[in-house]
Please model this.
Amino acid sequence: MYRPTYRPNMITLMGFMFLLTSSLLSYIYSPHLDTAPPRWVHLAHGILLFLYQTFDAVDGKQARRTSSSSPLGELFDHGCDALACAFEALALGSTLMCGRLTFCYWVVAAVPFYLATWEHYFTNTLILPVINGPTEGLMLIYVSHLFTFFTGAEWWAQDFRKSLPLISLVPLPFVPEIPLYVIVLILMIMFAVIPTVGSNIGNVQKVVDARKGSMELALAMLLPFIALLAGVAVWCYLSPSDIMKNQPHLLVIGTGSAFGYLVGRMILAHLCDEPKGLKTGMCMALVFLPFAIANALTAKINDGTPLVDELLVILLYCATSVGLYMHLAISVCHEIKDALGIYCFRIARKEA
Model:
């Protein structure tokens, strides 16, 4: 791995393939993410996530060791990390057996990631707290996978008082049965997402004020991401076939790819030092959602049957989002490597 001919991007890609394998296991053994897979799958999830985290850390060291750091490496690394949010959410969904709430776990990962990228765009510094997602957050997740290898996924899906016997000693007569994975989701939002988002906005506010810029223009760059989340939420709410429950893999991968496109465009704007403000090109990630929502609405006037079968719609949504992301990634990688005279997966410099 440490041979000089290995470009850091190759290490990044190898690490990403571990998460791709993990999400594939979740689809094979728990298609709807609401049934318990074999216990060895949880062990595999934990090991694969640990390997991903290790490779994600090693690629930067390899770049410094070989003096091969470049804008292409930054774009490639963060682009893979953006997609990793989706694929690890699917692996975690099979471990927690949380079904439709898997999409919410992806949102919990995507929101801090997008805000951190947005903050980096303005501050030129990736500011991470002492306890952060890429380190302690991933560690907690793969420890959860390994823990589930011993307890089984049902431990997360039962009432929290059964999973945590000490809590049952406290009388809670007015609290209904709540699965433990719901409690975990609430705690993550309260103690991880909200403080991180507040810190991101505060740091950007300081930089904008110091430069006498416009906070409105800065916040406008969040609109495509907000529109993506809102559009998918509306579609899921109107969906006659309940895509969030019945097609969680397609929904998360499709939306995760659209998210990756938004992140990629923002990183590209930062690398090119584009003017601050809303990037209309980012809205390409949203073009399919009006059709999906309109199709779901037709079910309201057609006895619950949409104009186009929703399985076909979500397949098209997933294919469109993946295709859009791949087009951006491949075209930008080609342009940057040609401009810098380097290879994407080899350290040797191109001949002039």
Remarks:
- The chain has a mean pLDDT of 90.
- The chain is about 70% helix and 0% strand.
- The radius of gyration is 21 Å.
